[in-house]
Amino acid sequence: MAILEQAPVGLMGFSREALRALFDSHPMFFRADSAAALAQQTGIDVAGLERSLSGYNLAVARGEDPLGRRHLPRPIGEGAFHAIRMQGYSVTSTVGLAVDDQLRVLRGDGQPIPNLYAAGELLGSGQLMGKAFCGGMMVTPALSFGRLIGQRIAAAVTQA
Ligand SMILES: Cc1cc2nc3c(=O)[nH]c(=O)nc-3n(C[C@H](O)[C@H](O)[C@H](O)COP(=O)(O)OP(=O)(O)OC[C@H]3O[C@@H](n4cnc5c(N)ncnc54)[C@H](O)[C@@H]3O)c2cc1C
Q: How many Å lie between the centroid of ligand 1 and the Cα of residue 95?
C-alpha cells in the first residue's frame, strides 16, 4: 500500500487518485488484503508469490539482490496488496509468405504461383529486415510494394 501511495504513478497521464480508482473499477486491476488473497484473485501460485515477496524483502534488507536488481527502495510490507495484469500482444509478424523479386508468391518448391502477389504484413518483417527489427519500417514497404504490384498488374493487363 505504501508503494502505491508514494511511488511515482507510472501510468502516463494518470493522477494518483485516478490510478487508485482503477483498482475498484477495472478488470485488469486487482486489490486484496493479503498476498495470498491477491494470488488467488489473479491466478498466481500462492506459495510462489509469497516466496518472491520474501526473497525481494530479503534483498532490500541486505541491499543486494540475487536477480541483479539495483533499485531496491523499500520492502513490500503491509496490505492492501495490488496487482495489474500485463498482457502481451503481437504488433507485427516476423515470418510470412515467400516471394521473389517481382513479389510473386512462391510455392514450397520455389516456383511462383501464377497471378498471385503479396506485399505488406503478409511478407513478415524478417524478409525486409533479416534478423533485426526496426520499429516503424512496415507501413512504407507495404505501401511501396503494393504500388509496385499495382503498376505491374496494370502493365500486364495493358499488354494482354
Ligand atoms: C499497434 C500497431 C502499431 C504499429 N505501428 C507501426 C508503426 O509505427 N510503423 C510501421 O511502419 N508499422 C507499424 N505497425 C505495423 C503496420 O501497421 C502493418 O505492418 C501494416 O499496416 C500492414 O499493412 P497491410 O496493408 O499489409 O495489412 P493491414 O493494414 O492489416 O490491412 C489488411 C486489410 O485487409 C482487410 N481484410 C482482412 N481480411 C479480409 C477479407 N477476407 N476480405 C477483405 N478485407 C480483408 C483488413 O480488414 C485490413 O483492412 C503497427 C502495427 C500495430 C498492430
A: 15
